[in-house]
Amino acid sequence: MGGGSADAAATLLACDALWNSGLSREELAHLAAELGADVPFSLLGGTAVGLGVGDELSPALAKAQMDWVLVCADYGLSTPEVFHTLDRLRTTEGLDIPEPLEVDAKILQALRDGNPDALSKVLINDLQRASIELARNCGTP
């Protein structure tokens, strides 16, 4: 997340202000979701939990600021290709989609406690497995 999605959210807010459109937060969020699944997160800001494709957001109470280190490769992956790979893995390897989709209470508790160690143990990135499949050296030291 970030990059183009953050740019799209900033542009949406700038256009709203420039043209005095008077759109509500809900209307802006709807437009943001049409631009991309993670654009609403950049629009909302702060700590939030997301469901669906990431566009169903709820602010989350976080006790402390948590800093994370992200290490980026010198190459990128095609977003559609990552999602196609995820779909294939779900079919061929039986990767489950939890139903009903809901936020794990342990995630919310770790955020409330300001406990990054507990949070790191319960966070899941559904796209990680597909990304590693596409970039074999991804996820290895």
What does it look like?
It is a single chain. With 141 residues, the protein is mostly helical. The chain has two domains: 1-59, Ribosomal Protein S5, domain 2, CATH 3.30.230.10; 63-140, 2-Layer Sandwich (Alpha-Beta Plaits), CATH 3.30.70.890. The chain contains seven helices and two strands. It has helices at 4-18, 25-35, 39-44, 79-92, 105-113, 116-122, 128-134, and strands at residues 48-51, 56-59. Strands 1-2 form a two-stranded antiparallel sheet. β1 (48-51) and β2 form a beta hairpin. The two termini are 23 Å apart.
Q: What keywords describe this structure?
A:
single chain; 141 residues; mainly alpha; Ribosomal Protein S5, domain 2; Alpha-Beta Plaits; 2 domains; two-stranded antiparallel ribbon; 49% helix; 6% strand
How many β-strand stretches?
Answer: 2
CATH class identity of the largest domain: Alpha Beta
Number of helices: 7
Could you estimate the helical fraction of the residues in percent? Answer: 40-55%
CATH topology of the largest domain: Alpha-Beta Plaits
Outline the fold blueprint:
Layout: H1 4-18, H2 25-35, H3 39-44, E1 48-51, E2 56-59, H4 79-92, H5 105-113, H6 116-122, H7 128-134
Antiparallel strand pairs: 1-2
Short description:
This protein is mostly helical. The chain is 49% helix and 6% strand. Strands 1-2 form a two-stranded antiparallel ribbon.
